[in-house]
Amino acid sequence: MQACPGPDRDTRAPAFAVPPGSCDCHAHIFGPRDRFPFSPERSYTPEDCSADQYRDMLATLGFDRGVLVQGGAHGTDNAAMLDAMERLGPRIKGIAVLPPGTPLRQREALHARGVRGFRMSTVVSGGVGFDQLEALAAEAGEMGWHLLLHFHRSEELVAVADRLRGLRCHYVLDHLARIRADEGLDSPAFSTVMSLLDTDRCWIKLASLYRLSSQPYPHADMLPMIHRVVAARPDRMIWGSNWPHPIHTGPMPNDGDLVDLIPLWVPDAADRQRMLVDNPQALYGFEPLPRQT
């Protein structure tokens, strides 16, 4: 079982100012383990990372909204995430990990608490894998939710692409479908991403791309793929910090540095508005921002 270091808790205020209403679409809450024990089936053990710490990190970065994704260390027990969502209020939504067969009444209760989708993963143990894709997609579709698809390797996307084309619900490819920089624009996985974007049901999350780069910060080798997907579908891009960066074995990023990559990744201000504000608002069902007078 892998022990995970905690995040860089001295978050630097970024030089780039995100627009009002910006949403960090990917973060995890872990523990506190004396109240919310970790799953015995987990593949890693993180440090406790609390709702209060996440709130403070968001404030330093200038983000108004966030999305908590159920972390693998807690398996299918979503209690820690739900508790954090309640503490942080309606500006936070959630993505749960639950097997198919969750009764409609329970899903409706989760929706009322801010849950907006299911996560499926081949990366961590104790969760829900792609053998249950169609069943979980049907239950997500009943709720107007989406699936968050977490691949271990990009080849897995290619293997399930035809099944994804048959889904009627929306789905998000987590972490750019784990396509490494050295695979590049001509890889089967990237071609698959581009074809799935044409379906209108596929979304791309730009998060933890430092894992996929072969170069140090600012990870310039990722730019060709990022620029291509943003140019193709700026209406299907979202961004996430991946705080507190679990299962990361390289140098721990500072989240302020990650925010400062946003204008490098997305040079156009209108596209940044879509990625950070408009797209998350549509995908997760946030209330529209009050009109400024």
From TrEMBL:
<dbReference type="Pfam" id="PF04909">
    <property type="entry name" value="Amidohydro_2"/>
</dbReference>
<protein>
    <submittedName>
        <fullName>Putative TIM-barrel fold metal-dependent hydrolase</fullName>
    </submittedName>
</protein>
<dbReference type="InterPro" id="IPR032466">
    <property type="entry name" value="Metal_Hydrolase"/>
</dbReference>
<dbReference type="InterPro" id="IPR006680">
    <property type="entry name" value="Amidohydro-rel"/>
</dbReference>
<dbReference type="InterPro" id="IPR052358">
    <property type="entry name" value="Aro_Compnd_Degr_Hydrolases"/>
</dbReference>
<keyword id="KW-0378">Hydrolase</keyword>
<feature type="domain" description="Amidohydrolase-related">
    <location>
        <begin position="23"/>
        <end position="286"/>
    </location>
</feature>
<dbReference type="GO" id="GO:0016787">
    <property type="term" value="F:hydrolase activity"/>
</dbReference>
